[in-house]
Amino acid sequence: MSSFLLSRFLELLVILSFAHFSFSIQIQQTFDQCLSTIQVPDTFFTPNNPNFTTLLNSTAQNLRCLTPSYPKPQAIFTPLNEYDIQTAVICAKKLGIHLRFRSGGHDYEGISFTSAMDPPFVMIDMSKMRDVNVDLDDNSVWVEAGATVGELYYRVAEKSSMHGIAAGLCTSLGVGGHITGGAYGSMMRKYGLGVDNALDAKIVNANGKILDRVSMGEDVFWAISGGGGGNYGVILSWKLKLVPVPAIVTVFDVQKTLEQGTTKRTISTTYNALFLGGVDRLLDIMNSSFPELGLKKTDCSEMSWLESVMFIAGYPTTVPTTFLLTGKPAFLNYFKAKSDFVKHPIPETGLEGIWKRLLKEENPLMIWNPYGGLMGRISESSTPFPHRNGVLFKIQYVNIWSVPEKEAMKKHYKWIRKFYKYMGQYVSMDPREAYVNYRDLDLGMNDKNGDNTSFEKASSWGRRYFKDNFMRLVKAKTEFDPDNFFRHEQSIPVLPGKGF
């Protein structure tokens, strides 16, 4: 390249960099000015603020989404109440600013606080909205989106040792996003998912209006109850049904290993469960239905339901239940995850293939969640979550690593994608189903430039997450948010002829 061309190229780079910088400053200033009617200090943070990075990283669960290569928000807004969120949505729509919403920061691809799309964005962090109001007379609880499920569990148990909530195993999950995807938990075979126990919700729509179940309409309430977060509005709070639990429950953790000849490594399996009753009754059931495990009384522990939450989440018994009020996660890692649903037993040859592949990777993990019980009796169309009758168990694949380098990420991505391909012969087909709360951008994503995506393109992930419910979700989206204001990498699209 000639010196003249090189100088022009460098000049162009400087101009483009300056233009991007100016655009970022413009977004920060115009949004901040619009929010000025709120007049609350310490709620708006730009990258120049010394607390910006600390706040951004505060609830992010997947460390790979915090590496420098991932785009960061132009600003972070931490609303204190519903009015603040109304104002933020109205300002963003007026100014054409893209928004992301974070309740717990557990999105597997980090799309609540980063982006794989080009348009710059502002993050709305819900962590200051975490009220929990338990009503034993009504057998329900209202919980704000920024509260964690651990906080929710604690506040319910604080009121009654005989009531619980059917929701997630990981106690640092933000309630807002967790419930919108389905909400798996250790009581799902008895009481179903979190969305199966959702009674009401409050959201802010694209026009800044606060709506409850009646005013949003049943189609939209159905859509947000399992259709994934960030599609229809900002979840402010959920009203959930309380479920009965005994004063004493039983848990166990039984580990088995698979010896592989002379190799230094082995496959370890852990059988982890909650039983809503005493240990003697559990042993009768297990010895009759699953004698192969060889469960003994010494493997089991009786405790309160709240203590079982800590046990299932992996906390040592020395950690007090008050730790749930901190909202802190038990583990932080760099990871990539995928999911499958299994409808036929995996043959022994298939299991041998699994062991062989697991032994080739550093820190692979498979989690199998058994179905049955109420999960097999709820209709596929009762909520957008369709993975019901006929499913034996769900698989979650997780590949974990400990360094931020791109080469490490590429290596571990390659392994989990090859493993996922191998598992295709043993899992559901047409579509190969996936769980929306284990978001996987390998399944496809909306147009990178942020424009509307076709129904056909979005079906590549939409049908995997929602099967035949996807079309109903699209129709509800088209009617409720025709301008497609609420959108992200795998958001529900609007139908042709609608929107902007």
From TrEMBL:
Protein origin, superkingdom: Eukaryota
FAD-binding PCMH-type domain sequence ranges: 69-245
Keywords: FAD, Flavoprotein, Glycoprotein, Oxidoreductase, Signal
Pfam families cross-referenced by the UniProt entry: BBE, FAD_binding_4
Key word Oxidoreductase present: yes
Co-factor(s): FAD
UniProt entry tagged with the keyword Oxidoreductase: yes
Signal peptide interval: 1-24
UniProt record similarity statement: Belongs to the oxygen-dependent FAD-linked oxidoreductase family.
Database matches in PANTHER family: OS08G0158400 PROTEIN (PTHR32448)
Identification of the protein by name: FAD-binding PCMH-type domain-containing protein
Species whose genome carries this gene: Lactuca virosa
